[in-house]
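If you are new to this repository, start here. Below is one unmodified record pulled from the training split, so you can see the exact layout before writing a loader.
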Amino acid sequence: MPRILLIDDDKRLAELLGRFFESYELDFDSATRPSEGLAKLADGSFDLVILDVMLPEMDGFEVCKQIRKQSSIPIIMLTARGEVMDRIVGLELGADDYMPKPFEPRELVARIHTVLKRFGQATNNTGPICFGSLCLDLELRQARLNDIVLNLSSGEYQLLALFMQNPGKTFSRDEIMNQLRGTETEVYSRAIDILISRLRTKLKPEQFIKTIRSQGYCFVGKPS
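And here is the target side for that same chain:
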């Protein structure tokens, strides 16, 4: 049963989701303060985090940054205003999806299942894949560059796994969206560019991801 952690200072929302998730076989826990949520993440085994932007102590963007320093666990962010810029900032910091408040709980459950399925598909194979100094260990869900472990978000990991399992193949933005996300094309088109940019930065000084003009992106490198 997937374990879900909600970090949100709205106790009523926690009570509502706790009751609702039971019928969908989701194990649920919650924290009203970021420090409490980060402590629970450190002590417990969770499969996904639902993270509000407006929080006491520190905002959700800072919490997202703190989580990403330690873990690639999938993160769905909640934005009260639902503004595009808030969503983009969250994605840039390593979030995997977002939900504007107020939301329909059934849609949140659907997004949780989609993100977990996507994360599982990117990590359900075993064995390392290496291209020169870059190695992806599918069993450990870990990437190394020059023997240094890369700090990747779950979205970055999924994208790198997609590329390294299909070297030489050119993926359009739509194909990448279909593989990794599959909703809200307008914002997700921007999200793909963000993911590509973040991944390229983390792979420097190597240049494994090539832009194919008017077509998309291609992973280049010699298998080793």
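Two things worth knowing about this chain: DSSP finds eight helices and twelve strands in the chain. The chain has two domains: 3-121, 128-219.
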